[in-house]
Specification:
It is built from 7 helices and 8 strands; from the N terminus they run ααββαααβββββααβ. It is α+β, with helices and mostly antiparallel strands and 256 residues long.
């Protein structure tokens, strides 16, 4: 199971609150088993090693080369929007692989990083019943970040600081035969804006995290149940220009 945060990332958040960089992350994870992200994947699965045949003794033209897909040149993942809102975080995603992926992306982009009261409400709204400790873990990490930057353990986000998280790519894998438990890996950037100082000059770029979501009570909920986290298996590194990243399941996420 991946830890929800790291000392290095908390240290970087300390820098932003001093006027340089503001960053913080929460993570939960585990994966195994493959689930395609796009309905069009079957149309895209062409042999990346295929090459045109040619013969000097033939008068026929060589067939065109088979295109090698990469995350950058393949169709992107459309993003479904939440149909409802619960405690300041979007909820209500459809029962599908795309719904699971969209839910994980939406949660990750909307989770509060420094306000422990808001964070607890958000995690309570999206945590699965089989892993109530997920809520406390998320809130504990907010406390650690706050203490690390010299703030009281509990409180709101310092005035004048706003965060923006942008998930750029995702890879979804089912953790059970039903497809109702899905791990979603995400590559994201995170920026901060400080009033009167402008945008973050040293944002987090290309960070990787994941959330496991399960279908429960007609929505996707985050779980950290050891039954699923024990199946953890990291994917190949994400590279938008890599045919191997595409073959592993990485897809660019369409702009929201």
């Amino acid at each position: 199971m991946a830890e929800f945060d790291s000392k290095a990332r908390r240290a970087r958040l300390r820098l932003i609150l001093m006027g340089t960089v503001v960053v913080a992350t929460l993570a939960a994870g585990g994966v195994l088993g493959v689930m395609t992200l796009n309905a069009d994947d079957d149309d895209l699965k062409q042999d990346p090693k295929a090459s045109p045949s040619a013969s000097s003794s033939s008068s026929t033209s060589a067939p065109p080369a088979v295109k090698e897909f990469t995350p950058a040149n393949a169709p992107s993942i459309p993003r479904l929007k939440p149909k409802s809102d619960a405690e300041g975080i979007g909820t209500g995603f459809e029962h599908s692989s795309l719904g699971a992926t969209s839910a994980a992306i939406s949660y990750w982009e909307d989770l509060d990083l420094l306000d422990d009261v808001i964070a607890r409400k958000q995690w309570t709204a999206i945590a699965a019943k089989d892993s109530p400790t997920t809520i406390d873990q998320g809130v504990t990490e907010v406390h650690k970040v706050r203490e690390g930057v010299g703030l009281p353990p509990s409180g709101g986000t310092p005035d004048g600081i706003t965060f923006s998280t942008n998930v750029k790519a995702a890879l979804a894998r089912s953790l059970d035969s039903s497809g109702d438990v899905v791990n979603v890996w995400m590559v994201f950037d995170r920026y901060a804006t400080i009033r009167d100082k402008g945008a973050d000059e040293n944002p987090l770029k290309g960070e990787v995290t994941n959330l496991i979501v399960k279908w429960e009570n007609n929505d996707w909920k985050v779980t950290t149940d050891p039954t699923y986290t024990a199946k953890v298996k990291a994917p190949h590194s994400y590279d938008p220009a890599s045919k191997y990243a595409w073959a592993d399941g990485w897809r660019v996420v369409a702009d929201g």
